[in-house]
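Entry for the shared binder. Reason: the reviewer on the internal report wants the predicted structure included alongside the sequence.
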Amino acid sequence: MKNLEGKCLALILGLCWLGMSGVRAESLPVAGEWRHRLDVQKAGEKEHWFAKELQADTPETSGTMRLPNTLDTAGISPNKETPTLWRLYRATKYVGPA
């Protein structure tokens, strides 16, 4: 009986895997120039930034960047870390919503 349960479970999992292998998620290309504004004061949701045209704040926290990219490689951050030889560090540091 235990062997039969194992075989049934394996069959069900196999069928699920086969059924899912043909499913493809729709993708949306995001490469290109994008406007950004970092939410340092955590006010974006409250002020509904998502429903408005992005306003430039400061060059460190707003502007444009080309995707694919990261905030680190684009050098976008209001907080620059001081280089040190004692530990690894990030050239730019940002903690908070983006």
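Summary line for the report: The longest strand covers residues 32-37.
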